[in-house]
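Appendix B. Raw example, untouched.
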Amino acid sequence: MKQLVLDLRLATPPGFDDFVRGDNAELLFMLSEWAARSEHTRFIYLWGESGAGKSHLLQAAAGRLGDAVHVDAATTALPWPLAADASLIVDNVGALDAEQQIRLFDHYNTLREGSGRLLAAGPLPPMLLQQQLQLRDDLTTRLGWGLVYQLKALSEPDRIAALKRHARKLGFELGDDAADYLLRHAARDLGSLSALLELANERALSLKRQVTIALVREVLHPPAA
């Protein structure tokens, strides 16, 4: 019988401290201020390419704040009604259907007139959400009223640093050669790279091996059965 090696470490929730800043230091500071309920950062919209880390940062903000209403528009409907002093976090605003766009527009007005706050994320800046994804003009205008930040993609050294940091969270050290191999032979977005690291860690634990470039190669190109 094959012996299974169980990894009993608890998953660590996403946080600001484990996000490699790269060229996003100002954005990280503003998100921390938002999560601290600063009056000057009540409304923030951030955008960037898929895999840049938008969902990670929104989850980190939700974890820091504690009582935020956190919704992924790609999978979950916005709540109704919403208190005027609520903290609302909405991921993937580009996925909002017509009814949900109206609801978010109403929520924005409610939060602005009260003491609430909104943190939202999407794939494009507010103006292009309307032009390319046909979101309502009045909604995209509201999203542009607050602070708007582009989440900039990490440089290659920063991507390697992010991979090594994720590997340490999983409990192992990732060598430069294995990190470089991943960047050259796998999808370059951090979400996909992190998932591959987790697969490599599971394989290493089950085989009682180290995560080396050879093992990473096996994960990316499994041998035929």
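End of appendix B.
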